[in-house]
Amino acid sequence: MIHREESFPLKNGVLNNGEGGETLGKSRHDRIVDRVASRYSSKHRREGVDIRVQDMAIEVAAELGDVYQSIHQLNSSRKKRKYLCVPREHRDRALNLLRGTGIGVMDGNGRIVKRSRG
Questions:
Q1: Whose C-alpha in 27, 55, 95, 100 is 20 to 30 A from the C-alpha of 67?
Q2: Where are the beta strands (DSSP E) in the chain?
């Protein structure tokens, strides 16, 4: 089988898998942020909190090691409602860490698991 260069072109430095979704070069964090941002009709912000919507701040922690930095990032936000968005495998740990803080928890699709107190 002959490999043709044009069958997998690069688009903005990211390999296109030929199926229309150029997600091959995106990190897990970026994929989650993009999914949640589109659910709330917002955009991925590169500075500060990942997603800001009206009175809500959403920070994504794709890996367990990112949780503490994400909590710090949310505490520095002046938004009324604050949410930490984590994948399913980190949900229970995030719920335990955030108990009593007033910060809510979302799953990786942007569904609220625990409401924010704000």
A1: 55
A2: 10-11, 14-15, 51-53, 56-60, 81-85, 104-106, 112-114
How big, in percent rounded to 5, are the helix, strand and coil portions of the chain?
Answer: 30, 20, 50
Residue 113: name the closest of 95, 98, 89, 90 by CA.
Answer: 95
Domain boundaries, the chain: 27-114
41 pLDDT exceeds 60?
A: yes
User: 48: phi > 0 → left, psi -120 to 50 → alpha, else beta; which?
Assistant: left
Paired with 15 in beta bridges are: 10
